[in-house]
Amino acid sequence: MLRPKIPTMPTPTGLVTPPAVIEPTAVVQHHPTPAPAPVPSTRPMVQLTPGAVLALVGGGTAVVLVVGAVLVSMLLAVAVTGASVAVCAVVIRSLISSQHRR
Length: 102
Prior knowledge:
- The protein is an all-alpha fold.
- It is 51% helix and 0% strand.
- The longest helix is centred in the C-terminal third of the chain and has 52 residues, at 50-101.
- The two termini are 84 Å apart.
């Protein structure tokens, strides 16, 4: 039932042209041209001096410290906000429960 059908090649209809005759061509030897001399690049070369390396290390350290301080302060703000919301919830719950006792 689920057998694949193998396509059959259709027979050509109409006129069939014979293959074209290929004539040999003459072989011409060319002398190789010398490769052009490499052109020096016009890009400026980056040279790191010890002072530049020290400045890069210092700048990277400053960036890491600033980002770390920002992340820690954001975490601390979330923690303080959560604690204050929890204290407010406890106070409101005690006020509501004290009203039901009266």
